Amino acid sequence: MSKHILSAYRISRRTMLRLSGVSIASAALAACAVPAGGSAAGDDDTPEQARVEVIATTSMPVNTFDNSLERAKEQISHIALEVNANGWGAGGWDGYSDTLLTRIAGGEQIDVIMIAIEGLGLLADKKVLVPLDDFLMADPPAQDILQNDVHVTLREMLQVDGQQMEYPFSWNNMVMYYNTAIFEEEGLDPPSNDWNWDDFLETSIQVSRVSGGADDRFAYSFWGSGMFGMAAWFFNNDTSPLTDDWTNSNLLDPKVAATVQFMADLILEHKVAPNPEGWDEWAQFHAGNLVMRTCGRWCIGSSLEADFDTYDIQYQPHQAGPLRTVAGTDGWGISSSSENPQEAWEIVKLLSSTEASLDMVQLGGNIPALRSVAEMPMFADYGPVNTALFYESLDFAATVPSPTNFNIIEPILNRHYATIWNGEKSVEEALAAAHAELQPEMEKIQAA
Amino acid sequence: MTSATRPDRSIASKVRPRPRSAVARREAWAAYLFVIPALTGLLVFTALPIVASLVLVFLEYDLLTPATWAGLSNITRIGSDARLFIIYGNTVRLVLGATFLNNLLGLLLAVGLNRAMPWTLRYLLRTSIFFPVLTTTASLAVVWRFLLTQDRGVVNYLIGQLGLDPIPWLSSSGWALISATIYDVWKSCGYLMVIYLAGLQGIPVVYYEAARIDGAGQGQQFLYITLPLISPTAFFAIVISLIGAFQIFDNVWVLTEGGPGDASRVIAMYIYEKAFRGFEMGYASAVSFTLFLILITLTLLQFLGARRWVHYE
Questions:
Q1: From the CA of A255, how many Å to the nearest CA of chain B?
Q2: Which of A80, A249, B13, B226 is deepest in the core (most CB within 10 A)?
Q3: How far is residue A35's CA from residue A47's CA, in Å, rounded to a whole number?
Q4: Do B151 and A407 touch (CB under 8 A)?
């Protein structure tokens, strides 16, 4: 059919060139036109909308943002809100920070940024965020919520040099999830909140069934990488991979070696834990092939999806020093490149609101920063029996080590941990190699 | 060339070129117009980044703060970067393994499919083998991670049924790169199969008929007819698969993330990590140029070597 049309309407080269010229000119004119949905200066009929672009992690329950978008349309109609999800990349918040910075460097217009403590130092160092103190001063209700409804630990976690860089939205600690049905089946009492590593090991040996077959049941699995997941163990042995001021490697501390050795032994000696590489603990926990796992509240989300409810939580087993739990907070900040900072501030408040927090609670996401939400009955409804543990641990929470070079040091640690879990290097050997790489990186930030 | 064949310059200099007609000029303009989009793309997305990378080699630049002059420090750093040599070692092993196996399997599969068989079976086999090429690498690699997990992985379950010990496919330094190679071959050999199949189908049947009349067996026909006549195709396939193997990134990234340690980290991943995780654009560019030089050298060597084994009809 097209052949007939072409033969009926033959186009000469001249006509073709003219048509091409007209097309190019039309395209150029079209490009100069006001985009649909935007506001044109002097157009009295269309209310002027300030565009606010939000960048957030894809790992947050998506409805949290979808519902906020709807609320923005209703409550602050003069702002055209757009949520742009940003993947984790490789790793956790370090990969997210890297991708985010690359997008900003690429000239992307971003107004509101979600970031957790792990990436805050890097973003503040790169002057990507503006302090929120002036906005808070001019907005007493928001200041009041921040001062009175947000725990001081969470508030301070998102400060840099005394300036509030982000408004806290949610946070996490790490607790031990355990399968209550298997505990019952094995005649075990629920772990007590003061259980130690010996108790944990004894329990692990009792509940594991590992013979290399299809019906293997592992007692416990851990991430094996990631500062947050590993800190849950280090902190309970009164140590950390970095010094307390986050300026030096602490990997040569014998307590670090003892902690890593304990974890390696779970895999290599006691054979109660799998090598974390490639292991899908989410699916295996719900399938009953894994009895215990360490995770934050966000793991409730997948259990809700899987209709899995035979589980409860307890603090991580403790070994030495004061009782501590690792904690990390995320929040919303305003980009230094924002052309509409005041509107961005409105969005920061909307995204940190009680409604947004409730959305997250119902979807099994993080622990809300707002104490008032965590104290609502709904918070307990969407969690296991011991849910109160999540918020009450804040009183003895310690911040996950998050220096400005977090995105560089976390991959270093992960690489070396992996060679311990597979038994290729001894703990001492791997930690010495990791220290040799880590310390020069820490010295760079000391020099800066 | 003898003197008799040389053009007479004195005459040539006296002959004035024919003036181009208006039609010819318009045609030339039209040709330029058609070429401009492709040329612009080449300049903007290929030539300019190459030049920019070359400039970056001499700078310290983290994307967000102004660049500063670094002199030759990024180049001299290459010599003292112990990880770079380990990673190049991994890359070479992956490239050799993947290029060899992809081409061998691609050729064998093509030869198998070029035989007489019902068209439905041929269609089914060809589609099945080519299917991994069409599917996104990341999604397939996620599936392979599930298959290859040491504990409760499908492959190890099957191995266990044979009474053998589980293999640490992804978690051992010895196996991680092998797993990445196996995955790449499974994913890519279908593409080379199609190329080889096209080459095989271009060989005139008369050669085989003549060989059969002369009493040549199947093996002799393959060695003395198929292989020489498919050598231009093989040359093309080897060149592109070798260059492609040096640029492997996503397969390994999703499958092992370069681990354990650096055991399966390849050069493209390292460049990416230095550029977009460490924000060391200058050093990443310097490492990129080492890859660029290696690829150019290898391709030139292949072209030189091709004179010995590639036969054009």
A1: 22
A2: A249
A3: 15
A4: no
How many whole angstroms separate alpha carbon A397 and alpha carbon A322?
Answer: 11
Q: Which residue has the tokens 């191995």?
A: B159
Positive or negative, the CA dihedral A181, A185, A189, A195 is: negative
Q: pLDDT, tens digit, for every residue of B28-67?
A: 899 999 999 999 999 999 999 999 999 999 999 988 888 9
Distance CA A14, CA A148 (A): 75
From residue A71, give the alpha-carbon distance in Å to each of A39, A80, A166, A227, A350. Answer: 21, 11, 21, 35, 8
Tokens at A336, concatenated: 């230094």
Check: pTM over 0.95? Answer yes or no.
Answer: no
Q: Provide residues of B within 8 Å CB-CB of chain A.
A: 26-27, 29-30, 33, 62-65, 145-146, 148-153, 157, 160, 165-166, 168-173, 253, 256-262, 273, 276-279
- Across the interface, of B145, B172, B278, the residue whose CB is closest to A408 is B278
Q: Pick from B304, B198, B195, B185: which is nearest to B245 by CA?
A: B185
Helix (H, G, I), strand (E, B) or coil at A312: strand
Q: Is the peptide bond before A140 cis (omega within 30 degrees of 0)?
A: no
Interface membership of A104 toward B (CB under 8 Å)? yes
Tokens 């070479």 map to which residue? B92
User: Which ipTM did the prediction report?
Assistant: 0.75
Q: How big is the A-B interface in CB pairs under 8 Å?
A: 105
Distances in Å between the Cα of A39 and the Cα atoms of A82, A307, B287 are: 16, 47, 47
Amino acid occupying residue A217: R
C-alpha A316/C-alpha A320 separation (Å) is: 12
Please check whether residue A126 is in contact with residue A333, taking contact to mean a CB–CB distance below 8 angstroms: no
Distance, CA of A110 to CA of A100 (rounded, Å):
10
